[in-house]
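Hello K.,

You asked for the raw outputs rather than the summary table, so here they are, unedited. I folded two proteins back to back in the same session to keep the settings identical. This is the first:
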Amino acid sequence: MAGPAFDQMDGEIWFDGEFIPFKDAKIHVLTHGLHYASTVFEGERAYSGHVFKLDEHTDRLLRSAQILDFKIPFTAQQINDATNELLKREKLTEAYVRPIAWRGSEALGVSAQQNKIHTAIAVWEWPSYFKPEEKLKGLRLDIAEYRRPDPHTIPWNAKAAGLYMICTLSKHAAKHKGYADAVMLDWKGDVAEATGANIFFVKDGALHTPKPICFLDGITRCTVMGLARDRGIEVNERTIKPEEMEGFEECFLTGTAAEVTPVAEVGPYHFKLGKISEQLMHDYEACVRAVGAAAIAAE
């Protein structure tokens, strides 16, 4: 992101029920969430001033906290209302929204059951996650060294901070080699996802995507599968071996930030920007814009 560092930005953040200046939204260095990753968050996107699928995102935030054995001290309605009010106060229409909740600094150790749970929401203007020129010609992706872990080893179905450590490392490694991102395999060596987005392939007019057995079943992922089915496109959720990528014709990523982004390469495998990827890219854009327009009309 161009411009000032986040801790130097103007505007407000909703923090534990109050709107405070962006620069004053601070936590202690001994915060449990910083040391032990007892933190959950969401990535949301506002179009025309309204967050796409806000209810689903807030429900997942609350569910993620429950999986990490803590309860956020605000209801879904309070979080939604705060989100909408914050967007209005910041006068943002096209924006990224980051709700986050974490264990505080009352105790520091593996066990911190009595620590206060803090909650905050920040919003800021957000351009395309990938560079426009990359998105139009298709992304080049590496194949990551790190793998999505066995679901018995980590709470994979929570959107939790600790799960993203290997994503950051994998994306940095890919960037160092000139790639935009990386595809991660799972603990068995099958295709899983990108570092911050789900992945789809196209073959003979049908979609193929890995089953979400060790990574989040993304909200954008589910939306795009619905859009595909509306067009009569077959959707197959299944185990995908890396070598199968040789036979796929198209590939694209889905995510709140990535939206629908075509892929040109994954390691040694190459894909074309085909009709299905392009159609779903346009369908998703139309979908989020229509929802935003409907929300405005209902006000």
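The second followed immediately with the same parameters:
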Amino acid sequence: MIPYDKRSGKIWYNGELVDWSEVKVHVLSHGLHYASCVFEGERVYDGSIFKLEEHTSRLFYSAERMGFEIPYTEDEINAACKKIITTQKVENGYVRPVAWRGSEMMAISAQKTKIHVAIATWEWGSYFDPKLKVEGIKLNISSWRRPAPNTIPWDTKASGLYMICTLSKHEAEKQGYTDSLMLDHEGNVAEATGANIFFKDKNGELHTPTPDSFLDGITRRTVIEIAKSKNIKVHERKIKPEELKSFIGCFLTGTAAEVTPVSCISEYQFKVCQMIIDLNESYLALVKKRKAA
């Protein structure tokens, strides 16, 4: 794999198309030292960004919650995202808009820092090994927990929130798993390191944790809409880890993960059942249909 700082082409950076290798962030940027940085992850299907406007709106909401203002309008960011995928000729890939505080101030206060914005894109296939998307991925249960909602801006896509996700995923991979299930501050099932989670019960109904201390994903909401359109009952509720033994199916949802089945979480085993396969096929059909529309 080519390192991300060694790739070629252009990145949209503060309103200009800049050579990939020339996009620089100063080592004393506030965003690097104090995590005053927000971002989005977007998928490109057949040259079109799926749910671009929703992602951009969330980016602006995250920035507002972090106490800074993005110096562009949502329409300008939408146009920039479209421009960069055209410039880079990305047909099926990923888009990463990111906004952060600059280096005008050092220490906790950051009121006078400049807000920088960059948008990069590249061709990117499946987040997980395609074979695992058929067989199901394996999760451990992380030793880290999602913090209480009164301790962090939990409903944002802010960089600092992913520190324990990296630690959890590294821990899982060291143990031979693909990813990790994270519990919330009360010990309930929360999410994986970068995706929401669903369970299927023996009655063919779905259960997913209430997103009250972690991100309510755009893909999560989309899959709930698809499930309801198929008359599948969806329960959004608190789920205890001991309940895992009663479920027969499990899958993750996310922009990168799309719909990915889970074959086990620690000692709990799940089947890649037809409902999960159908939901995945319906999701993929939807993202292609949006392009045609």
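The chain has a mean pLDDT of 96.

Happy to rerun anything if the numbers look odd on your end.

Regards,
P.
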